[in-house]
Automatic annotation (TrEMBL):
InterPro entries: Cadherin-like_dom, Cadherin-like_sf
UniProt xrefs under CDD domains: Cadherin_repeat
Compartments reported by the entry: Endoplasmic reticulum; Golgi apparatus membrane
Main location (coarse class): endoplasmic reticulum
UniProt topology in membrane: Single-pass membrane protein
Domain Cadherin: 15-136, 137-256
Signal peptide: none
Gene3D superfamilies found in the cross-reference section: Cadherins (2.60.40.60)
Lineage: Eukaryota, Metazoa, Chordata, Craniata, Vertebrata
Calcium in keyword set: yes
Organism superkingdom: Eukaryota
UniProt name for this protein: Calsyntenin-3
Organism expressing this protein natively: Characodon lateralis
Keywords: Calcium, Endoplasmic reticulum, Membrane
Amino acid sequence: PLRSSFSANKHKPWIETEYQGIVMENDNTVLLNPPLFALDKDAPLHYAGEICGFRVHNGPSGSGSVQFEAVVLDRSTGEGLVRSKEPLDCESQREHSFTIQAYDCGEGPDGVNSKKSHKATVHVRVNDVNEFSPVFVERRYEASVPEGRLFDRIVRVEALDADCSPQYSQICFYDIITPNVPFAIDNDGNIKNTEPLDSKRQRVHTFWVTAFDCGKNRAQADAQVVITVKPSCKPGWIGWTKRVEYTPGSGSIPLFPSLHLETCEETVWNIQATVELQTGHIGKGCDRDSYSDRSVRRLCGRFSV
């Protein structure tokens, strides 16, 4: 018998040139836009007009054929599904790119003379799942402030979140969980006092704070805040007296034996002090301005500074 030269599979399958995909972290089904459909002009011819498979090739990221596969859902319509071979991790790699081809079923059940489409590019973005909770950088925060004043910021606490997306990695707000403390905290972790503090009433304030990411996950462990209230302080000389009583002939005496410079814990770069003795009010028996130094020492004795 004569064989016909007519080919049973004249056309290649056709797919879009580019697809955008989204897959949830810890899932494997990729949602494509546009949806994956392979068309063949040989349809509705049996085998030649049907789609038997898709093939995934490595893209720029080199992960296509390793991590992704594509399957045919309906051979007659050419509908396909792209999925990852195992759940993806947004924190390790957020975007994937690879190429895909469609194959028709050829000229018979054995797939002989199967034709393939061009390669289409697929870009897949991994959507984050809120799997991590905030973690404070420090477990304990300490600060000290002078009493009697209001401060815009006494100390700042900070928590971090290991999720990959801004929604779940961002700290949305902090909260002071210890009740009835004279402090407030803003969404950036800045702590301020809500009333002037009194060191005599309470020298040390201890309380706990927590943090929430924007997916409402609470911190794994709360942080402790310790604020010490310092008594009010005024810099200056302490322990000196304006009047000195001296008995003539009693020898030298120290003028300021308990003199102390209060610096209020601030750094001192330079000190200048001047001592002036005023004797104009003293009677003739010890009038320094009217006698020579030798006579003064004989009459009045000696001071030492």
